[in-house]
Every structure is written in structure tokens, then in C-alpha cells.
Protein: Organomercurial transporter MerC
Organism: Tsuneonella aeria
Amino acid sequence: MTIQGTRVAGSTSTIGAIIAAMSCAACFPALASLASALGLGFLSQFEGVSIRYILPLFALIGLAANFLGGSRRRGLLRFVLGIVGPLAVLAAALLMATYGMATEWLLYPGLVLMIAVAIWDLTAPKSGAEGHDLRGFERDK
């Protein structure tokens, strides 16, 4: 997968995870309020499918994209943050679906990390730009 492909997959998984979490009004009330304000209140009828299947799927896509792309670009901090966010969302979704636990404390920080890393990916200069290699060191000219 190319670096641009992992950027797209990471951003797509972030958006998908947020929309899937918006469908569970009882589980994640802050996101459900946002969904209603955006006119996406109809998503609540798909609550079970979203929490059991869609949210973990998008978290896994984000995890894979960040693992594949993060190990090749922008250093250790970006790699770790890119892995921790989807892992937190995946853990929250699985704990919610399996044990019915309240996992807002785990989901919201995970989504914030996923959003932050997606913005970081979109605003960072393209790899290898401006005479630097992928680790930020100057290339031999």
C-alpha cells in the first residue's frame, strides 16, 4: 500500500468510526447529540450492527493503515499515536459489544487520537519533500 493509500485509509477509517459511534445514543451520548444536530439521528436504528460490526471494522482498517504507513514515515511518535487511537476504539467497541460496559472513557480519547493523526497526515508535507528523507534528515545531494 502506498503512503497516499494509507493516508486515505486512515482518514476514511476515522470518519467511519465516528459515524458508527454516532449511531449508539445510549452508549455514546455526546456523539449521538452531534449526530442529531447534523441530521443523522436515523443512524440510531442501526445501533446493534454499528457497535458489533461496523465500529470494530473501521478501527481495524485504521489500525492496519497506521501500522503499514506509520512504520514507513514521520517517526516513532506518529506511529505510536496512530496505533493507540484505533486500539482504544477497538477495545471500546469490543468491551461494549461483549460485556455491555460503558466505554465512553476509552472511545472518546481513541477517536480524538484518530482525528489528530488523520489531520497530521493530511497537513504533513509529502514524504521525501524538500530534500529530506522520511525520518526528517537531509538527503545527500
